[in-house]
Amino acid sequence: MTEKPRKGWVMKQQWNHLLFLHYPIHPEHLQPFLPESLTVDTFEGQAWIGIVPFEMSQIRFKGLPVVPFVSSLYELNVRTYVTYKGERGVYFFSLDANHVLGVQIARSIFHLPYFRAKMRMERMGEKWEFSSRRTHEGKGNPAFHLSYSGGEKLHIDGRRTLVNWLTERYCLFNVHNGFVYKGKIDHNKWELREGHYEIEKNELLQPFQYTFTEAPIAHYSEVLESYIYPFEKEAVQAGE
């Protein structure tokens, strides 16, 4: 796929062997877990929580080269979908990563809830084995372990389908110290496959105190390059 020209980005990343796991949840249950400024987004009345394991590589800031040994990490994020003043985006409840410096940079520069974790990711035949246990002080130590692989390629058109709604998101929102932060993210459209998985342990959903009765839907992506833009911020208005 041909890359379109991009201007103004500050960081470039490559996302590898990524799995989307999405769990349906009632929006009324999920809303209290969000900052007051943000509203849970729904597809046909249904809210979703996503768990996303992957490898991040080729990390570099604009104008600087990729530096070996500090340009890749494993990541595991827990996310949902929100609106702010009518704009749709992603909200992260947590982002676990196995790179101490990367966690510190993300927390200090982007004010995102990154946490240190002990992680392992390796190829086992046709599957990827991924395991994580959070080690960040004061943030508990939830564990997550699964194996997964990609299946048949999905032929996704431009219609408003659930898979498009879940994955084609081009900004994130966060609220920190009285400010709403908006971060634009740009990339080509996802080239997705069916996701196949076996979950051995998942303690990431426990904080939501919700009985998930349906198995998650899964989608797999082999590789995608992404571009991060400077975050915009505005003060939270009274009543938000």
TrEMBL record:
Gene3D superfamilies referenced in this protein's UniProt entry, alphabetically: Acetoacetate decarboxylase-like
* Stated name of the protein: DUF2071 domain-containing protein
Pfam families in the record:
DUF2071
Query: PANTHER family in the record, alphabetically?
Result: DUF2071 DOMAIN-CONTAINING PROTEIN, DUF2071 FAMILY PROTEIN
Please name the SUPFAM superfamilies in this protein's record.
Answer: Acetoacetate decarboxylase-like (SSF160104)
Superkingdom: Bacteria
What InterPro entries does its record include? ADC_dom_sf (IPR023375), DUF2071 (IPR018644)
